[in-house]
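USER:
I wish I could look at a protein chain and see how it folds. I am handing you a single protein, as its sequence and its fold in token form. As I understand it, each token names a local backbone shape. I hope you can help me see how the letters and the tokens relate. The protein I mean follows directly.
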Amino acid sequence: MTSSLTQILERYHLERASLIPILQDIQEKDGYLSPSALAQLSEKLNISDNEIFGVATFYSQFRFHPPGENTIQVCLGTACHVRGGHQILGELEQRLGITAGQTTHDKKFDLQRVACLGCCALAPVVKVNGDIHAKMSTRKIPALLRKYQGERNPE
């Protein structure tokens, strides 16, 4: 067992009720839920790998692949959807060569679709590494990607 997982587990009662907070802590520490971390957690909590995976996949907050250096979130809430959010997501998928939930091969970007970023008056909205980009359009995507090509996600 990795030392980081051991440190996380020391903060909890090793019981089923602790599963979601433990998963959140693992993801916060590692950036995602790795197969090895889930297997070790399964052993410690005496819960099957399948059950843990089932719980984790139910919640959209959990990732199963390492994040990219830059995290792109495309809002698909009602206001953003009506103003072209799906077209923006499609353009990003095409330009990056990935679909939502994936990371580019060079690990430069990962792409996520989110239900709402809470910026409805600025719709459509794309969030990159915490920076809100308002009134986005498919024409603005190339410049947006160029802006983050050389930046690393702060750790």
